[in-house]
Design a protein that fits this description.
By secondary structure, this protein is of the alpha+beta class. It is built from 4 helices and 4 strands. It has helices spanning 7-17, 33-45, 60-68, 95-110, and strands at residues 71-72, 75-76, 112-116, 122-126.
Length: 129
Amino acid sequence: MLHNDDFHATIVKALKKKGWYVNDVCVGKQMNHIEKQALINRMFMGRVNHQVLINCDNNWDLLISIETTDVYMGKKDKRGEKLVETEDDWLENRIDGSDAFDTLCIGVEKSPKFQMRMSGAVTSSFGGH
């Protein structure tokens, strides 16, 4: 439960506690819905500078969230966000997963960070300069 804590700080703290290195980056003002969805669609088609791939075997909750998110009045339908979790409606499958994925995609495209591996392969993440 977050209560009055900053959601960002709570997530960073939890990841660091698990031993993760966290390079948190502000991605700026949220894109409008149409612009954001166009970016993500181009990413899935490989038509942008960077591409985000989803490991389908390990991300069922994310895939369910992306596939079941509806649109209401031109934006993501967030009317059910605050409903109590049930056996048929898990929190993991709600819009929060697709919102986090949207933010990841925006960060990867707007603030990429490249790393050279010992093998010579170049990988990309986001954050930093």
